[in-house]
Amino acid sequence: RREPLALINLKKKHEETGEEELASRLDHCKAKATRHIFLIRHSQYNLDGRADKDRTLTPLGREQAELTGRRLASLGLKFDQIIHSSMTRATETTEIISKHLPGVKKISTDLLREGAPIEPDPPVSHWKPEAVQYYEDGARIEAAFRNLLMTTCAFVTRALQFPPEGWLRLSLNNGSITHLVIRPNGRVALRTLGDTGFMPPDKITRT
After folding, report:
1. Stretch 189-193: mean pLDDT, rounded?
2. Collapsing DSSP states into helix, strand and coil, what is residue 31?
3. What pLDDT score was predicted for residue 155?
4. What's an example GO BP annotation here (predicted)?
């Protein structure tokens, strides 16, 4: 629902000047810039925490976030905003990264909290949510896609029009960078997926 025609009130248009007015509004609503979206996976966190507030970043996780922040800053791009999950590990990762991107607005949202967007195919033996969780999380994550972004793996499959059931086949390192480019005509290209080449090998984890 981001095509130009969906952004115009057609009822109002018919009450005004007709086709010329419609053409003018369509041109005004057309995307004219290329968008760059960077999806960052949270850094390593304490897996022993019973509640979300206890699942804080480990010392290594904080190092990973520092490295990710430096890498993003080194790209020399002007970032508009950072949208992050309200989960503790995502919030802490964002706080560290944002030190390297001063002045960039931060937005926290529950829509980006981790969940089960769709039953994976093939299934995995170590993770089997109740069926109801797919319905609850799936609706929330779809809302995140439409309004903001999604979790990295699910967003990549959705943006590239790949079968969504394959989202768990994408295994990304902590603190990794995924770069998507959206052209004005709506075409999406994946520049990098889960890049951690900027981290020393002994700092790379996948949890």
Report:
1. 92
2. coil
3. 73
4. positive regulation of mitochondrial fission
Tens of pLDDT, residue by residue over 11-55, are 554 555 556 566 776 666 677 788 899 999 999 999 998 899 999
Q: How far apart are CA 8 and CA 182, in angstroms?
A: 22
Report residue 31 as tokens.
Answer: 């995307």
Amino acid found at 32: K
CA-based diameter of the chain, in Å?
65
Domains recognised in the chain with CATH numbers: 1-30 (no CATH), 32-203 (3.40.50.1240)
Dist. CA 46–CA 54, nearest whole Å: 7
Q: Name 174's Cβ contacts closer than 8 Å, sequence gap at least 6.
A: 41, 42, 43, 44, 61, 64, 204, 205, 206, 207
Q: Say yes or no to pLDDT of 98 above 90.
A: yes
Q: What is the spatial distance between Cα 5 and Cα 80, in angstroms, rounded to a whole number?
A: 26
